[in-house]
Amino acid sequence: MTRALFLFEALRMARHPLVWGATALVLALQTYLSWDQQPDLSVDPVHATGLSTCLAGAVLIVASLAVSRDGRHGMPESLAGLPGRAEHRTRAILLATPLVAGLAAAVAVGGYLAIRLLSGPAGGKLDVWEPLTAVAASMFAATLGAAIGRWARWLIAGPIVVAVLGFLIFTNFQNGAAGWLLPVMQEDRPDWPDRPSAVHLVYVVALTIVFGGLALLRHRLRIVPLAAVVAALAVAVPSGATAAAEPPIVRFPVGRPLSLSDVDPRVRERYFGPDARRCSTRHGITYCAYKGYEPWIPLWESVVRPAADVLPADLRARLPSVQQTSMAWLYTDPPEIRPTMAWGHPDQRILLAQDVASWAADIKIPVGTARVGCDAYGQARTVVMLWIIGQVAPPEPPRLLRAGSDFGRSTVLRWGPAEVAYAKLLLHTPDARAKVQAHWDTLMKPTTTIDQALPLLGLPRTHAAPTGARPCP
C-alpha cells in the first residue's frame, strides 16, 4: 500500500508546476543576477543556495497541501472506505516529496553552477557542502511542510510559515551568528573566513528528520519515529550550536591607525602571509593572484597590457606588479595596480586601466588632502592619462566605479568634459602613440597645460581647458 501511494505522490510531485516553475525561476534569476561577473566558486554556490529558498518555499506549500488534502472537502468520509490509513499517506508523502524536492534543488543549483563554469575561467575555491545544503534545505522544507499539514490543518498555515522563514532568511545579515540556526545562510563574500558549511549541512539534515518524525507522530505514538526524532535532535542541537558559535567577522576599528593585528585572524595568513599570492610573468609584466584566482590572470592581462604597451619602453619596464587585493582587509597602502576579489563588470576593467594610467602619469595627491583630492583640470598629463585608459574603455568624467558586488571605488582626481574630449580626439589621431612617447617628459610636467600640449599632440583647440583652483602637483 505504501509503495503504491509513494509512486502516486512522487509522480504527482514530479508533475507539479509550482515546483518546477520555482526551479526554473531560481535558475534563471540567479544566472541573470551574476551575468556580468566572472565565475567565483567561493561565493556562487552560496548565492545559489540563498536564492533556492524560493524553491524550498514552494516545496513547503505543496507538501503541506498534499498532507492535509485528506482532511478537506469531505475527503475523510471518502477515504474511510479505502484500505490505506492516513498514516500510510503521510509516510508516502514523506518519502516522495523530499526526493523530488532534492532533485529539483539539484537541478537548479547544479544547472546554475554548470552555466557559471561554462561562462569563463572560474576563480575561488569550491566548498562542496554549500550546494548540498541547497538540496538539504529543499528536503527540509518538504518534511516541515508535511508536519505543518498534519499538525496545523489550516490551508494558510504553510504560506504563513514560508513568509516568516523567508523574512528571517532575507534579513539574515542582521541575525549575527544566530543566522546559522536557519536552514540557509546566504550572507558571504569571497574574502571572508571559511564558513561552517559542513556542520551546518549536518544540522539541516537532522532537522529534516526531526520534522519527518513529528509528522508521523501526529497519528500515534510509535517507537521508530519517536527514536528518530530524539536521535535527530541529539545531532541537531550540538551541530546547530557549533555553527552558531562561529565568531562574527572582525570589523576594522575606527578612530586610530590600523595594523595587521586588526585583520581577522582567520584570514590574516590567507591575504598577508608569505604564500598568499601566486605570481606569474607575462610579456614582461608580473601578475599576482590569491590562491584559486590564478585563472583570472589572463583576464587582467587583457586590460593591463593594452594600457602598458602605449607607455615609453623604459617606463613600461618599471611597471609595478599587478597584485590582487582584498578591499575588505585593506589596512595599509595598497598596491598601485590592484584588481579586487571580483571581476567581469566593465567598471572593474576601467578601474584596472585607471590604476595603470594613474601610476604612469604620477599625479601626486597633496599631503593632507586624500579625502578632498585635487584638480587635474587643464593639465596635459590628465589628457594622456585618459588616453591610456581609453585603450581599454572610452574616457569619461570621474564617477564611483563598481569595484565589487557591494562596494565601489572612485578617484580623488577631478577632471571635466574638456579633458575627456581631448582624450577622445587623441584616440582618433594618427601616430598618437609616437607623439605621446616623443614628448612624454614635457607632457608629464604638472605645469604643462593642455593648450601648450595641443601642438605637440597635433590636436586642434576645441574646448577651453582652464586649470583648477586646487591643481594637482
UniProtKB/TrEMBL annotation:
Lineage top rank: taxon: Bacteria
Keyword Membrane part of the UniProt annotation: yes
Signal peptide residues on this chain, from the entry's feature table: none
Keywords: Membrane, Transmembrane, Transmembrane helix
Transmembrane segments: 46-67, 92-116, 128-148, 155-177, 197-217, 224-245
Protein name per UniProt: ABC transporter permease
Organism: Nonomuraea purpurea
